[in-house]
Design brief:
Helix content is 62%, strand content 0%. It contains 6 helices and no strands.
Amino acid sequence: MRRLALAFALVLVLAAPASAATPRASLPDIEDEVMCVQCGTALNISESAVADRERAFIRRRIAEGRDKAQIKRELAEAYGPAVLAMPDDGGFDLAVYLVPGLLVAIGLVGVALAARRWRRSPGAPDRPAGPPLDPDDARRLDAELTAFDRR
């Protein structure tokens, strides 16, 4: 019985990656990642005739058993690279990838500098307290603080 359970567990472990390796493509999953080449909007919100032809193209490829990457590659071959919603990874389009990361880095540096400045605020323990008090002033201060505490 123990061997049967072990064999069953082994089959499940080996079958899981095989079934997960080829996820089934769907129209809604692909529609939001491609553009209508006529109006330049996302395919999932476009209502043009060209968008309808693109959707029909995608449905045919899904029926043929193609996965998402294959369908997007075939769309780019049929309609040109403008059909893909992702920008190129070179030239000016590279800014789409770099600017958000750069803004996050600048924000982190700003927070670190502000935190450092706040830690050095007046009255922080690392600053000297000033010149020492005259002994007469120190006695008078102690007497006034004692009188204040009694109230």
